[in-house]
Amino acid sequence: PLIIGTNSAEFWWMKPSDLTPYGELDDAFTPEQREAFLAAYGGQEGYDAHVLSDMVFNEPTRHLARLHARNGNPTFLYRFDVVAEAMNEPHEGATHASERPYVFDALSTSSWPTDARDQAAANLMAGYWTDFAKAGDPNGGERLRWPDLRAERDLLLEFTNDGPVVRPVPQARRLDLIEGL
What is the pTM of this model? Predict the structure, then answer.
């Protein structure tokens, strides 16, 4: 059994034009590929804001989850989009690794103040992960049922500020384009 997922704004601060190894990921694009990507991202601004998160995290995670489920293994995909009200970074979503204090119900380790809403999200996430550790299945109790990709391909559980939501993998068209590379 596998739980795997990503955050809604993994690498929001990195651009493909940055002089880092991540900035080199799109250097080999053909002109046709670059044009297709810019169209899928709604132009340069959307591309710059999201392509690295998609190439480094979102598509590889979706791909691994699909492979795992296709081989008959219980697979639970998530997207974390809980953002503490006090977080002051200039982004739109949950940054890389910001889910850890919630998963382990350890909000005291957070870099910013948290509140009752954050604690409710932490209680919920810790419950899912604890049940998964006990039985290989995060579902139990009265929590929203987390879909298993073996039966419900490309559905995930998204953790939001308003609670969890079952939904299709976001931006599948962009991820399909990356998978095609």
Answer: 0.91
